[in-house]
Amino acid sequence: MEPLIRIPTLADGAAVHEVVLACPELDANSRYAYALLCHEFDQTARVAEIDGVVVGFVCGFRPPRRPRSLFVWQVATLPAARGLGLAGCMIEAIVADSRANGQPIDHLEATVAEHNLASRRLFAGLARRLGAPLAVEPYITAETFGAMKHPAEPLIRIGPITNQRGRGG
């Protein structure tokens, strides 16, 4: 069946939580947090469904100092649904819908550790499809995380976006 990309609802919170838990590389939050994200950040989030089952989730927000940017905070796809391009489709749907709603997104932003090659490929592909340059710059250093021993999270910034349609529009 063809994947369905849609705006999440409050009721999707539990399913989204399960998708994130299936991605050990991600920092999981509570079911409550995902219910809130699905409801309160629904315009900057999407879920992907296959046969009525949530298999992917993207959540972002518009930084108050850069309201025409979308900061992509978390991307999760069930292992069985990887390789279908769902993450890119979900992000592109947010970009396309923002333009249709008269509030276009001109830049995509995310922090991605250097070793996270899958996410780096995702954002490089998005930059190509959206006709926008991609820049990487220091952002959150390893020292910021203190004793946690977390790698640095450079900022990936795509934009300005000239092709608002991408492959999803």
Instruction: Give me the CATH architecture, please.
Output: 3-Layer(aba) Sandwich
Poorly predicted residue ranges: none
How many structural domains?
1
Structural class: alpha+beta
Q: What is the H/E order?
A: EHHEEEHEHEE
Task: State the end-to-end CA separation.
Answer: 19 Å
Specify the biggest β-sheet: 7 strands, mixed
* Number of discrete helical segments: 4
Strand runs, count = 7
What helical percentage do the residues reach? 25-40%
Indicate the topology:
Blueprint (H helix, E strand, L loop, with lengths): L3 E3 L6 H9 L9 H10 L4 E6 L2 E9 L7 E9 L8 H15 L6 E5 L5 H13 L4 E7 L12 E6 L11
Parallel strand pairs: 4-5
Antiparallel strand pairs: 1-2, 2-3, 3-4, 5-7, 6-7
Structure description:
The protein has a single domain (4-158), classed as Gcn5-related N-acetyltransferase (GNAT) (Aminopeptidase), CATH 3.40.630.30. It contains 4 helices and 7 strands, in the order βααβββαβαββ. It has helices spanning 13-21, 31-40, 86-100, 117-129, and strands spanning 4-6, 45-50, 53-61, 69-77, 107-111, 134-140, 153-158. It has a 7-stranded mixed sheet, sandwiched between helices. The protein is globular.
